[in-house]
Amino acid sequence: MTFTFLGPAGTFCEQALLSLPGTEAEERVPAVSVDSALAAVRAGEVDAAMVPIENSVEGGVSATLDAVAHGDTLQIVAEALIPITFELLVRPGIERLEDIKIISTHGHAWAQCRGWVEANIPGVSFLPASSTAAGAMGLLDPECTYDAALCSPLVSQNTALRVLRQGVEDHEGAVTRFILVTRPGAMPDPTGSDKTTAVVTMTDDHPGGLRELLDQFATRGVNLTRIESRPTGGGLGQYFFSLDLEGHLNEPRVADALAGAHRMSADVRFLGSYPSATPLASKVPAHASSEAYRAAGDWISRLRRVGRGED
Ligand SMILES: O=C(O)C(=O)C[C@]1(C(=O)O)C=C[C@@H](O)C=C1
Description:
The protein is α/β, with parallel strands linked by helices. It is 30% helix and 30% strand.
């Protein structure tokens, strides 16, 4: 298989990709953005892309949420959770924090370190980079216009760049969740500990619309682990909902909840069921178990047979 990821080498995305068994031996092609990584999958240039979807401090990664919600449908086949810690790397010649005037990094990384930066290097400017590793690698360029970069410890392990400070993140224990995305195809089998991702576009704006959507999941005992609204791009007040839930499409309660969402919304884009990287947070209530669905289905079939005079 051929994989792409938000590059260059040394990003958290690459780390997430390499955390999946077997990926080290496969071809890996870095991409310059989340959009181009997903475009390469859609175009058939690569088989799969590893992209970030949410961070425990900064929240959803809009570039990913929007790119998977629009365009040709893609499928999530795996997820990976990576603990996030940042190092402050400097270009040759910079010796002290006071020498740093401009720091480059990815916007999500800056959001996770800016408290530390403001407290320790007040007045510093932020220069956005396409990724943490892209910002760091720029320091090797003799023409580099900035002084430092915030990135994964992987970069200093593999380059001669100097580490001025380690652990500069504002929140210890932060985690980013990544998804492995392919073109639609065979869905991973249920493991008993799975997640499903979908995008729901509401039919119209009316009181209780979101509550009606949430009821579809609540009444079927389906636990949501993430729900966020993103603008459709069609005008103020027009949003879609991106959501993750516990369970697999092959479980009747999940299929039933998604079918309910489909009946009451303009569109449901199913983005895949895949093994959860961590144990599920909730227990399936007895009334929503696959056995309960089977028993209830048998009961209805019996009633219909009797109604037709067959029993
Ligand atoms: O720039 C990287 O290294 C990435 O993998 C991207 C990304 C993100 O988009 O959130 C991933 C993890 C960190 O939270 C910061 C940046």
